[in-house]
Amino acid sequence: MSASPILHLKPLGFPWETIDPFLFCVYHDDAYPRANAQMGPAASLAGRDIGQDFSRKDGWSMYHGSTVPGFPPHPHRGFETVTIVRKGLIDHSDSLGATARFGRGDVQWLTAGRGVVHSEMFPLLEQDQPNPLELFQIWLNLPARSKMADPHFTMFWSQDIPRLIAKDAEGRTTEVAVIAGRLQDPDAGAAVADPLAPPPDSWAAQADADVAIWTLRMAPGARWTVPAASGEGTRRSLYFFKGASITVAGQAVASHAAIEVRADAAVELVNSGGEIAELLLLQGRPIGEPVVQYGPFVMNTQAEIAQTMDDYRRTQFGGWSFADDAPVHGRDPARFAKHPGGREERP
Questions:
Q1: What digits encode the pLDDT tens for the residues 259-271?
Q2: Kind plus residue range of the DSSP H or E element containing 27
Q3: Of 41, 56, 120, 145, which has fewest CB within 10 angstroms of its CB?
């Protein structure tokens, strides 16, 4: 009997633990109520630690926001954020002068590189109905040679992201959204589509890094086999975060869990519960370098962290050019991205 491809299985915490080249993943699922005129929640904020509210009181948090929920300006250096917004909107502003509004399936991939300050606010636009927000933010490390790369952000608009809709023998569907990495359809024997190009300095931009970021949505009873990765030394984790139960390579998983599986083996998944099951897949070849982290700074040595803190005190990574310290971009729901230098794009 062959050994199970499951290497480790543990309950999901907050944030989710990840494996090199990833640093961690946070999952936000907030049931915000109707909006007030300031694009914040039309509800009392009494009893919340405003500026530091992770309470999930009534099913939502303000985080570091005081009027609008979200994360006012904060610095990053030495890694990337991949922000996948499944419901709701994020308003981005940064120290390069760039702004964006994205969500509803869009992804923003930001290379912080040598340093950027950005704010990520969650404007609530609907005044007559709830404003649910659901997103992942994945921190992907940069190798030493790229830690001081120029900051850069790339937008993956929802309609451009390749998706596979696979049907099993009973016609039950699994939908896979391919944010990074090439997915071979085991039934068709071909790639679903060329993945969108990650930022140029990303570890994911190296073909032999074998980075993949996929989301899976499985109908009740659906079966789908995750194909084996092609890379040498690749490591792979599955995060079961929504649904009642699944089986992974024949092993029952009855609660939400982080599951490391062998990347060189195909792994059959079955949604054994009576509701839709959802998973996030993260894989990649480890960078294999020392990681020294101090809050939002991720470098290779303690001396580099000290230099980063000195640089930030001196330069503020470009400073903050916006009048508001937590800018939101008005009531128009249209999504857009305005890059440094003025180039604008819309989905």
A1: 999 999 999 999 9
A2: strand 22-32
A3: 145
